Amino acid sequence: MKRIAIGGIAIESCTFSPLTSGIEDFLILRGDEMRVRYDFLTDWKIADHEDITWIPLLQAKAIPGGSVRQDAYEALKQEILTGLRKALPLDGFYLDIHGAMNVVGMDDAEADLARSIREVVGPDCLITTGMDLHGNVTRELVEQVDVFTAYRTAPHIDYMETREKACRMLVDCLDQQIRPVRAWAKIPAGLPGERTSTFTEPGNSIYATLPQSDAREGVLDASLWVGYVWADEPRNAASVVVTGTDPDTCREEALRIARIYWDARKDFQFGVPAFDADTCIAKAVSLEQKAVFISDSGDNPTAGGAGDIPYMVQRLLAHPDIASGKVQCIYASIPSATAVGICQQAGIGNEARVQIGGKLDPVHGQELELTGTVEFLLPDDPIGGDLAVLRVGGVHLILTSKRKPFHVIREFTRLELDPKQVEITAVKIGYLEPELHETASQAFLALTPGAVNQDIPQLSYQRVARPWFPLDVDFDPGDFNVAVIS
């Protein structure tokens, strides 16, 4: 029987956010609780392989946020390592990470985690990983991990397939006694996910070329990371890793993919019309139709923003048709446990006066005072805690006691709100997730303030490795310093 353990820590960390992430921000799964992440491991068995014992240790996942506090990271890491020592000997390990975790005082936390795991499992154990394409991948990480793959879609609809592929490649390598090589290329460019969606060009066409690399003899997988741009750290860059058995072929494909991405760097654009908040609102109102979506992108919690900047709420209420209630809007959402508590105390149908914003991210936003009518209360949401809907003018403002993303229609309808029945739904998000995209009759992206501001050159980078696009525009990266690691 082969023995494969599973564990990891996954978060996307914005270093521009003043809100750090602690142990309380992670959903921690241990042992058999982890099966919900791996549909393909039915009863902890992978198809056609009865000779493997899977050992789930710990997987911790948080919605994107600020840098992880050292005590939280160390506690999670040490629990994984303790479980590993008890599980030895191991033939393989699946490292379940995102790829853009920043820990306070540490630039490359994933490499540190992989290195620590390698020290326990030894040099002969094969380590695999299936990552988010918004990770920042360093040579140090590639030196510790044997087998790589990453999502090929953004929005991410292939996350489960990627996890399965990572595990299947590991099993195949064990069966065939393959010790893969990896060709790694760092592409000195940082672009936000809102410009690099694989649902639009040129992202769609670039990612469509990856199967060409997979098909070459000597290649197991070719992966391209666009990187995570809101991290002021030296590893911030796009990257390529080609995993395979032939060093020369892997190098050729890594260079080919890197060059394709680099040559297209200036062609990436937002997938929907993008303007300042007031312009987006004016255009949405002028359409005189329902189900228009506006992304409040600068404080997007699913990109690492704190999520409590009330700027967009203020701008919505500055429009006379919205303030009067002639035009109806949904806004999702603002986290404020205090505001939710005030709404609960007031009760449904009664007036409540709340202050929102200026707490989680006082650097980029200020407090806003509002008076409205409590429309709905929902206790004990698994992510958002207690929820409330407060109507102010024509704005149905969703308040949450904890940071919560809104990615599917059910998150609205369970609050008795229906984006299909109101003119405008404004969401703290970047590109729309698939279900919201399908619902939208028209979508706009509002360029709003926040820690994940879309105006990348305006952010206060101090530590990215230069030259780096878009801070530096015209330079030649040469052969991208492609490295083959075995």
From TrEMBL:
Domain of life: Bacteria
Domain Microcystin LR degradation protein MlrC C-terminal: 294-463
Pfam families: DUF1485, MlrC_C
InterPro entries in the record: MlrC, MlrC_C, MlrC_N
Record's protein name: M81 family metallopeptidase
UniProt domain Microcystin LR degradation protein MlrC N-terminal: residue ranges: 3-284
Coiled-coil features, chain-numbered ranges: none
Native species: Luteolibacter pohnpeiensis
